[in-house]
Amino acid sequence: MTDLELIEAAAQAAGYETQRYRVRELEVVYVREDGGEWEYFDPLQDDAHAFRLMVRMARRVASNGGNFSCAFAEVDGDRAKVRRSLATAVAGRKGLQ
Length: 97
Known about the structure:
Blueprint: H1 3-13, E1 17-23, E2 26-32, E3 39-40, H2 47-57, E4 58-64, E5 67-72, H3 79-93
Antiparallel strand pairs: 1-2, 2-3, 4-5
């Protein structure tokens, strides 16, 4: 599987509509949510894009003694709860919880 195929498959699994764009020899993936605007997407190079995938797919985030784990499954529409869990788990690694 190429990086482009991986990006496209991950985006589709997360529920995004995908579209490939080619400019000369460069081919990239753009995504959008239902009815949204198309935007460039590359979670292999962009931390924010990778984080968006994690938030869309994470169900449970936990911190245990400084270890950080995330279980992946469809989110029941509560992305704010997942983001808070991620921030709490990361803060727990520094003893700030």
